[in-house]
Amino acid sequence: DVIAIHKTTLIFHTTATAAPPAVVLEMPALRQRVDDEIDRTARYERMFSLLCFVGGLPSERPNIQRTAISQLRRIDATAWSSEGAFYVLLPEAGADEAIAIATRIRSKLDRLALRIGRVTCPPDGYDFDADALIASAHDAAVIAKPGQISGLERALQTLMIGTQRVIVADPTVARLYALVERLAPVGIPVL
After folding, report:
1. How far apart are CA 144 and CA 9, in angstroms?
2. Residue 135: is it exposed, middle or buried by C-beta count within 10 angstroms (0-12/13-18/19+)?
3. Is 45 left (phi over 0), alpha (psi -120 to 50) or beta?
4. Are the C-beta atoms of 20 and 74 separated by less than 8 Å?
């Protein structure tokens, strides 16, 4: 760059550097970032989205992570959960932009047939709770068909318990029912 001020000329030499990629966090740090985005959403009326990818084998994780990060912006963040789900936080991204980003990632990883869940806050974050949003993104991914992107609107579950039909819409209740399903076949008392 050349800057001329009166009779003085300044010349700046610099090399172009690539923008740093999206950051990979531990899950508690991503949860904190989601909390921070919720605060920004409430205070400044901004939006953000959260994607969840499920279905990859442990050996495919490096490829999934590398491919996803190549499609993300600097402000985005990612994390792997202990269950093997890959989360992508997209600050300042509404539903349409989140779907576009998820579609780009899905097209690069098409052979893996990942299931992708998406939530956008505030439209889907009715209770502004980080754990609920993370669980909702995961629930949406779990019910998505392989290779598909599912939004929160499809994350409602209908369960049959005996003769009763139960509609589960709250992520906390959904996690409770999932825990009950996992514990039901176990032969040890849980209460």
Report:
1. 60
2. buried
3. left
4. yes
Sheet holding 115-121, edge to edge: 23-25, 77-80, 86-91, 48-54, 115-121, 149-151
Is residue 175 within 8 A of residue 184, CB to CB? The reply is no
CA 76 to chain centre: 10
What is the Cα–Cα distance from 42 to 78, expressed in whole angstroms?
A: 22
pTM comes to 0.73
pLDDT given for residue 124 in this prediction? 75
Each residue of 59-110: pLDDT tens digit? 999 999 999 999 999 999 999 999 999 999 999 999 999 999 999 999 999 8
Tokens at 98, concatenated: 């989140």
CA distance 144 to 126: 21
What is the token pair recorded at 169? Answer: 């819409």
Whether omega before 122 lies within 30 degrees of 0, making that bond cis, reads yes
8-state DSSP, 72: S
Asked if 50 and 116 count as a contact pair (C-beta separation under 8 A), the reply is: no
